[in-house]
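Incident review: delayed structure delivery

Summary: a single-chain prediction request sat in the queue longer than the usual turnaround. Root cause was a stuck worker, restarted by the on-call engineer. No data loss occurred. The affected request and its eventual output are reproduced below so the record is complete for anyone auditing the incident later.

Affected input:
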Amino acid sequence: MAVIRQIQVRNRTYTVADDVKTVYRALMTGMIRDEITGEPPRIAFTIRVDRDGVEVKTMADGLFCISGYAERVFPSLSSTSYSVGLVIAVPDYKEVTQTIVVPMAATFPVNVPTVQLRRLPIRLQGRVVEDTTARDPIPNASVLIVNPPPSPPAPPLTEYVVALRSPLSFDHASGVSALDATGTIMNLARKADAGDGVIFLTGEPSGTTIEILDPSGEIRNLGALTDAAGYYRLNGIGRVKTMQLEASTSSVTSPTVPWTINYQQAINIVDFQLQP
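Output delivered after worker restart:
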């Protein structure tokens, strides 16, 4: 048991505990991973901690460690818990903010759940033209993400990828209901963030629109339409590695085009040629 006493030095009073020992140790450990590949980013990253008296060590394999004197960082840990805010910043990825709870009488190091990094979204754009020598543009052609039938046929897909004509304006939680133009109810299979131009649904929508049914409800058209010169664009594309794309008019549909997104390029270009 510590012996507490006070000493006077000139005009100052100091409280002294003779037998208190402090140990510099790892307080938290964790790792970061690309949510698409499951691999660590191949670039240096930084972590900011909203607590004084700690040191952050990051490693090339995505591991990190937050160290310090527990008795100084969490002085009342024997009787209370603490919340620690982390901000993880990686070039070419969205910044991640997490709050980690350090429970009362915690055993160190506290494990931080794996941080899933999201690539910054890209723009997908291109042109739809007639498959003729003249390459005349095709206006009002639709460009969509196509969800291939499952192989083998059973069980069905657990989530369907949908491209929106314009990105979302608000965040929406996983599990929120969504309504397609045929009146079919489905749910968001993943959390959707403001700025996302791709969402994940538990069912395959029919029709041309999807409505998200929560207090911040939004209605979005599906896919892109070409302008008078045959050009289209889809903003906010992300969270997927490869997409199956298809262009169509009321009378003809292109072959499905598999496209692996290059997240190092802010704009990915995919063109289509349709039989007139």
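Verification: The first helix runs from residue 70 to 73.
Action items: add queue-age alerting; document worker restart procedure.
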